[in-house]
């Protein structure tokens, strides 16, 4: 299937690790130009070097997305260097466990800055270029927005708000032909997820207990499976009449009867 993304400029926040990395790879495979906006870590450096070795270089701008000024600078960099933006994938975030009892209002607000405010800031600053290109926004949310989890009020609030903003922006941007959709993963074995598993007494047993509950195939969702949905949604050629959607890529985890597991 030709997605028509060749030469398109796509920004992926947190695009050098986990799900974001898979999205970046999928976009590069389509010959799109990817600008990763992320803070730096060993993972990130390793990924950027690997892409250079594979002769699929992606651009990178270091940003602490919780600071709106750094979001603005990242978008200005894209404007100056490429002069266009066709797709924005808002992806960076982490389930940080700021719970109703375990957190406090300051930590709640800080978590919203880490998980939500930059989704708005990136879309806000990118808007003129996205309108010009009749581009597409994909917000990576989470099944936590639909199911809750317990002990993670701020993350749940951020992920739920991302779904609401998907509908709100899809409505606001109808006149400009800019489509807005969200993808909801449930269980994907990313570096973030591995760090969480490693906090369990027996990580292998914890992983097995989770995969046992995933109806389709009793396995984790691959990052590439989230990425495949995301590049489809970025493609105006193939998903040109798809907007305001919440697409759940989770092997039936969120919706199927527990009796099936
Ligand atoms: P990941 O492996 O940690 O990758 C996220 C990347 O974004 C990391 O490089 C991270 O940097 C970076 N990042 C996070 N917050 C940032 C900030 N404020 N400023 C700059 N960079 C930032 O995480 P992932 O598991 O792929 O998660 C990606 C998205 O999927 C998140 O929105 C998450 O909520 C969602 N999600 C994941 C799962 C899952 O099962 N993995 C399930 C549901 C939803 P550091 O490494 O320095 O933190």
Overall helicity: 40-55%
Q: On the 0-100 scale, what is the average pLDDT? A: 97
Which stretches are poorly predicted, pLDDT < 50 over at least 5 residues? none
Number of domains: 1
**What fraction of residues sit in β-strands?**
5-15%
**In which order are the strands of the major sheet placed?**
3-2-1-4-5-6-7
Give the termini separation: 34 Å
For this structure, the CATH topology is: Rossmann fold
Pattern of helices and strands: EHEHEHEHEHHEHHHHE
CATH class: Alpha Beta
CATH architecture: 3-Layer(aba) Sandwich
Q: What key phrases describe this protein's structure?
A:
single chain, 261 residues, alpha/beta, Rossmann fold, 7-stranded parallel sheet, 48% helix, globular, 3-oxoacyl-[acyl-carrier-protein] reductase (NADPH) activity
Could you walk me through the main structural features you see in this protein, from its secondary elements to its overall organization?
It is an enzyme of class 1 (oxidoreductase). The protein is of the alpha/beta class and 261 residues long. The chain has one domain: Rossmann fold, CATH 3.40.50.720. The chain has 10 helices and 7 strands. The chain has a 7-stranded parallel beta sheet, sandwiched between helices. The chain starts with 8 loop residues before the first strand and ends in a 12-residue tail after the last strand. The mean pLDDT is 97. NADP nicotinamide-adenine-dinucleotide phosphate (NAP) binds next to α1, α2 and α7.
